[in-house]
Amino acid sequence: MIKVIDKSNNINLAEILSDFDANPFVCRIISLYMSYKPEYPFVDYWVVYNNDNKICGAIARNGSAFIVFADDLSCIDEVSQFMRVAGAESIICDGDISLKLYDFTEKTGFIMKMDKQSKVLPENFEIIKPELKETFKLIMKCSDDGFKAPVFEDFYVDVNHRIRHNTMRMVGIRTDNQLVSVGMTVAESKNSAVIGAVASNPNYRKLGYGSKIVSCLADELMKEGKTVYLHRDLKRNAHFYESLGFSDIGSWKEYYYKG
Q: Which of 93, 116, 196, 211 could connect to 186 by a Cys-Cys bridge, CB 3.0–4.6 Å?
């Protein structure tokens, strides 16, 4: 059974999902909920219950992008049917979940978790809090087939809002009077965080900037007692993240509507 969470039923989604918070997809759902409560028209939240009326999953919608968490395979048929009528254009979930959808294509990669302290890095890089416009320009410069930058107006409003609600943070490194590397958390909850959007100017790569950015973010989060995750591409950056203390713990899957 799938129940909607809105202001009428007076349920705090972050609280009822707290037992599942050590999961990157629950972290994303809670982070979205902490940023945008159900009264915003472009978000919706649902909880999935099994036959014993126990929580076995959760779903969040941000526009036409959906996040799915499920810990009980018995609910997958129901979730699949729900997705088919909910207007989803993209869905991100655990790689072990096989949703039964039509006219969707799939992309997958690895979930990594930091399970040990990162290596000691040089201190000659000054970590700054970069401006959003400058960050977006760097992300645009690093866009390729595997990393597409969002529309600036959407990026600016969303990131600024999330930073103010403590569900996202951003760090950067400036040298030669320009921002050369940046990274952020794409989601944060009370106990977890997901690192993403790590980008370095192509002219300043292999100089340690990206390593310093990821190490700084991860160490800061771990000191706050948070479990640190990231999602990496199937064939990219494995050695880079392993050298910083991350290891593969599973896979992610993203569905895209082909229509």
A: 196
